[in-house]
Design brief:
Length: about 160
């Protein structure tokens, strides 16, 4: 405590400089919050598969701007209505560059992607009629070849 009192009495210029630096820091923090209100600072490493500072999305819940996720959910809902299909899960694999075939997926961002492949996991995929219906409907909806579609039986 004595050291602090001696420091404050001896070096008033340094103390005033520290107070100015502190005040400037507070002003910068407040200005940053006003200029960028919705952005939070990233603290620690990001969760695996998420952007820095973003909370992990709920499982199978498309995030805003996630057109591919919304399309997966929509396909799951439609495919589960196919007689005998039961519960269905869909995963789309996207390519960064258009290859001339398949649906071009653009989630409102700057880049567009094409559907490179689809995995469909369904309870009724053991039935060949259900498998065939899933493959044909995927070809029709996404405009991709059958070899880019993998249909698997759900455990």
């Amino acid at each position: 405590m004595n050291y602090l009192r001696k420091f404050m009495q001896k070096d008033k210029k340094t103390l005033s400089n520290l107070a100015i630096v502190f005040a400037v820091g507070v002003v910068l923090l407040l200005t940053g919050k006003m200029l960028f209100p919705g952005q939070a600072a990233a603290v620690g490493p990001p969760a695996q598969g998420t952007a820095a500072g973003a909370a992990a999305p709920a499982k199978n819940t498309p995030q805003p701007g996630d057109y591919a996720g919304a399309l997966e959910t929509k396909l799951e809902n439609v495919y589960s209505m196919i007689e005998g299909a039961g519960e269905v899960k869909v995963m789309l694999t996207l390519s960064d560059t258009p290859d001339g075939g398949g649906l071009v997926v653009n989630g409102g961002g700057t880049g567009a992607n094409t559907v490179k492949g689809v995995v469909i996991v369904a309870q009724g995929a053991g039935d060949e009629a259900v498998r065939s219906a899933l493959i044909r409907s995927t070809q029709a909806v996404l405009g991709i070849e059958a070899y880019k579609i993998c249909v698997l039986k759900m455990k």
